[in-house]
Amino acid sequence: MVNNQFGMVGLLTFIRAAESDPNLVTLALGNDLTGLGLNLNSQESLHPTFAGPFADHPCRVQDVECNVPTEYLINYAIKDKLSAPILNKLQEDLLFFLFYTNIGDIWQMMAAAELYGRDWRFHIEEKIWITRIPGNNQGKFYYFDAQSWKRMSKDFQIDAEKLDKCPNISALVNMN
Amino acid sequence: NDCDDPPGLQEKTEFLLKDWVSIYNQSNNLSRETKIFTSFVQKMNMYGILKTDDLITRFFRQATQICIDLVYRILNDPSNSPLQARTKIFHWIDAFVHLIALLVRHSGEAGNPTTKINLLNKVLGIVLGILLQDQELHGTAFQQLGYHRFFVMLFLELSSPDAVLESLMLSIMTAFSHTYHLLNPALAPGFCYAWLELISHRIFIGRILAQIPQQKGWPLYSQLLLDLFRYLAPFLRNAELAKPVQLLYKGTLRVLLVLLHDFPEFLCDYHFGFCDAIPPNCIQMRNIILAAFPRNMRLPDPFTPNLKVDMLAETATAPKICSNYVFNIQPANFKKDLDSYLKARAPVTFLSELRSHLQISNEPGSRYNIPLMNALVLYVGTQAISHIRSKNFVPNTSNIAHSAHMDIFQNLAVDLDTEGRYLFLNAIANQLRYPNSHTHYFSCAVLHLFAEANSEAIQEQITRVLLERLIVNRPHPWGLLITFIELIKNPIYKFWDHDFVHCAPEISRLFESVARSCM
Amino acid sequence: PLHKDHQLQFKMMEAAYYHLPTPADSERLNIYLPRTPVPTPQHYPQQ
Questions:
Q1: Rounded to a whole number, what is the distance in Å from the CA of A85 to chain C's nearest CA?
Q2: What secondary structure does DSSP assign to A111-157, as a single string?
Q3: Do the Cβ atoms of A58 and A51 come closer than 8 Å?
Q4: For residues B405 and B383, is the Cβ–Cβ distance under 8 A?
Q5: How far apart are CA A13 and CA B129, in angstroms?
Q6: How far apart are alpha carbons A153 and A141 in whole angstroms?
Q7: Max Cα separation, chain B?
Q8: Which helix (H) or strand (E) holds C13?
Q9: Which single residue of A46, B218, B414, C21 has CA 20 to 30 Å from A59?
Q10: Residues 6+ apart with CB under 8 A from A86
C-alpha cells in the first residue's frame, strides 16, 4: 500500500486521531455545521439577518435597522407638545417601562413614585422592585425581573431599612 | 506628509471637526440638516479648506489622524469602561463619517458622479493609508476599533435610501471593495477580524451579490474571498489550529454557509479560483463550495437505484467557469505543446516531460504547481468533452478512453509520485459537483482511471481522495456521491476485492457503513 | 513551520484576537438624552 500520508494509511491516521485528539483533525473530518447558529433549512434568505461571522445566532428583529422615511422622525417637532401621561391610569408594566427607560429623567422618578403608591418598594441592594403577594405572610414576594420583563415570585428576608423611600416629586419639580 | 502642511491647518482642522461633532450630536438637528450642512461648508470655505484638492486631502488626513489619536487616548484611559470608551469614540467617528457622507452626496454637479466618487476614493485611500501606517507603528498594540467603525458607518451612510446615492451604487461598492482588497488580512493582519466583519456585513453582501444588477458585484466579491482563503492557507496547513486561526476559520465557514444558502450560483461560477486558493487539506470548506448548485435545479437522489446519470438533461450543459484558468497554463510554449498533443497525439516526448512542468521545487508541501495542475486538468477535460461531442457522442467510460486527453490523465496517474498523484486526483475531484457536463466527464474519467490502473497504488489513491471528501461532515457534492456509489456498486471495478479496503478494522467499518447507506 | 512573514502575520492576528469587534460596533448609537434631567439615586438603573 501507499506508505505515506497520501494513501489509505494517511486517512486512517485522521480517523484514529479523531478518537484521541479531535482538535488535530478539525479540517480533515470537519465540524457539524448546523451548530454554527445559522438556520440552514430556512426558506428565507439568511443574509438579511446575518449577525456576522463571529456571532452564534442571527440578528433579532430589533437588531436590524430599518430605514424609515424622514417624515416619520418627528420626535424633535412634537416632544414638547405631547400631553403628559396620566400615571395612575397606566398598567404596572408601563410604569416599569418608564422607570427603566427614562434614566436620569423626572419620569423615572414619577414612575417610581406611582409604583410606591401601588405598594411596590425598590430594594436598594438587590436593585429590584418587590411587592407582597396578597394573602401570603410567609416571606414570599413578587419582584419585577427587568431582564425577562416578568413578575416573578421569590422568598425574601426583607430588612425594612433596605427599602427605598418614596421619591419627593414636588421637590424635584420645584428644583427643575 | 505632516511637515508639508500649511501652517495653521492642524488647528483649523481640529476646530472645524470639534464644531461639527458638536453639531452632529445635537439630536434635534435633523430637520435643519441641509441648512446646517450648507452653513458648515461655508465655514470650511472660509477657512480655506476647500480651496484646492491638496488642501482637501490634507484636511481629511488631519481629521482622520485626530480621530485615531482620540481612539488610542480613550482606549488607553483606564477611567473609561469599555462601553463608555466606545460611546465616546463613536460620537466622534460617526460625526466625521456623516460629514464625509454629506460631502460625497452633495459635491460636484447634479447628475455628474465623478466628483462624488473621486472624493469617496480619496477619503477611503487616506484612511487606508493611515491604517497601514498605524499598524506599522503600533505593531501588536494596533487598535482596529476606530477604523472598523469608520468603514462600517461610512458604508451604511452611503447605502441609505437616497436617489443620488442609489444611482452611484456600483461605483460606491467598487470603491469599498477595492479598499477592502487593499486592506486584506495579508496586508493588515491586525485588522483581520474587523475586515471579515466588514466584507460579510449583511448589507454589504446583499448589495454586492444581489442588488447590483447583472451580477457586476460578483467579481469584486470573489476577489475578497480569494484574499481571505489565501491569507488563511498557510495557517490551515497545520493539523492543529491555534485559537485565533480557529476563530477566523469558523467565521469563514459561517460566511460560506450564508453564500451557499442565499447565493449558490455565485459559488458555482467562481469555484475554480476558490479551489486554487484553498489548501488541499481543507476538505469541508472546499466541499461547501463544491456542493453548491443553482437554485432552480432539482438534484436527483444519488441513491436512486439504476440512476442513469448520462441521461440527465443537465449532463449536456457546461457550467460557467468565471476564471481565466487557461492563463495558468504557463509557460506559453508548454501550452502550445499541450495543444499540439491534444490535436495530434504528438510528440510522444510531451508526456514524459509533463511532470517536469508541474514540479516546481523540492520543498515538502509545495513541490507542485497546484494552480497549473488544476488548470491543466480542467483544460484537458473541457477539450475532451468538445472532442467527443463534436462526434455527436455523450462522454462515457468507454469513449473517453483511447484519446490524447486520456493519455495525459493516465500518464499523470502513473508517472507522478504519491503527492503529485494526490494533487492530480484532487484536481479531478474538484469538478465533481452538481449535474453538468464537467461533473459527468470527470466522474467517468476517474472511474476509467480506476478500472485501467496498472497498479493498486493508483486505485488506492483514487479511493482515498473520494473517501476523504465523503467522511467529512456535510455538505457533500452530488457528483462526488454518484461517483463513489458507482465505484462501490458496479462489479466492473471489483472494489471490494482490493486489500486497501480491508487494511484496518476502522477502514472496513467505514466502507461497510458507507455501502449500507448507498444500498 | 510558518515562513517569517506568516509568523509576523500570526502575531498581529493573535494580538487582534484579544480585542475582537463586537456586534454593537456596527450599529448606530442610540443616543438617549433625558428630556427633563434630574438627579436620581445611585441605586437606580444608570443606563
A1: 14
A2: HHHHHHHTT-EEETTTTEEEEEPTT--SSEEEEEETTTTEEEEEE--
A3: yes
A4: yes
A5: 47
A6: 6
A7: 88
A8: helix C4-17
A9: B218
A10: none
Q: Which amino acid is at B408?
A: I
A97: confidence class by pLDDT, cuts 50, 70, 90:
very high
Exposed (0-12), middle (13-18) or buried (19+): which is B135, by Cβ within 10 Å?
buried
Cα C44 to Cα C47: distance, rounded to the nearest angstrom: 9
C1–A contact, CB cutoff 8 A: no
Q: Which residue has the cell 447628475?
A: B111
3-state secondary structure of A127: coil
Q: Return d(Cα B253, Cα B225) in angstroms, integer.
A: 11
Task: Give the sign of the dihedral formed by CA A30, CA A31, CA A37, CA A39.
Answer: positive
**Cell numbers found for residue B419:** 503527492
Alpha helices in B76-201 (DSSP H): 82-106, 114-138, 145-158, 163-167, 169-182, 192-199
Question: pTM of the prediction?
Answer: 0.90
- Contacts with C23 from chain A: Cβ below 8 Å: 51-52, 55, 63
- The answer on pLDDT for B428 being more than 90 is yes
Mutation target among C9, C22, C33 for the B interface, most CBs of B within 10 A: C9
Nearest CA to B82 among C4, A81, C18, A33? C18
Rounded-to-integer distance, Cα B284 and Cα B470, Å: 9
Q: Which residue(s) pair with A141 in the sheet?
A: A132, A154
| Closest chain B residue to the Cα of A80, Cα to Cα | B28
pLDDT of B294 over the 80 cut: yes
H or E element at residue B413: helix B404-415
Give CA angle at B341 (B337, B347), nearest 5°. 80
Q: Are A113 and A168 in contact (CB under 8 A)?
A: no
Judge contact between B160 and A12, C-beta under 8 A: no
Residue to mutate among B94, B201, B464, B511, with most A CBs inside 10 A, is: B464
What is the C-alpha to C-alpha distance for residues B346 and B336, in angstroms, rounded to an integer? 12
The residue of chain B with its CA nearest to that of C16 is B190
Cα B3 to Cα A24, B7, B8, B435: the distances in Å are 53, 9, 12, 63
Closest CA to B318 of B441, B435, B438: B438
Residues from chain B contacting residue C13 (CB–CB below 8 Å): 185, 189-190, 192, 244-245, 248
Cα B456 to chain centroid, rounded: 37
Distances (CA, A) of B330 to B276, B427, C23: 15, 17, 45
Q: Which of the four pLDDT bands, split at 50, 70 and 90, describes residue B519?
A: low
Tell me which amino acid residue A83 is. Answer: S
Sole residue written with cell 516546481: B360
For residue B120, the 8-state DSSP code is: H
| Subunit contact B257:A10, Cβ cutoff 8 A | no
Alpha carbon distance B29, B52 (integer Å): 30
Q: In terms of Cα–Cα distance, which of B431, B438, B435 is closest to B395?
A: B438
pLDDT of B32-62, one tens digit each? 678 889 999 999 999 999 999 999 999 999 9
What are the backbone dihedrals phi and psi of residue A91, each rounded to the nearest 5 degrees, phi first? -75, 165
Sign of CA dihedral B162, B166, B169, B172: negative
Q: What gap in Å lies between CA A22 and CA A27, rounded to an integer?
A: 10
Contact call for residues B245 and B391 (beta carbons, < 8 A) = no
* Largest CA-CA distance found in chain C, in angstroms, rounded: 63
pLDDT at B170 over 90: yes
Q: What is the ipTM of this complex?
A: 0.93
Tell me the H-state helices in B430-492: 437-451, 456-471, 478-489
For A54, the closest of B209, B251, B472 (CB atoms) is B251
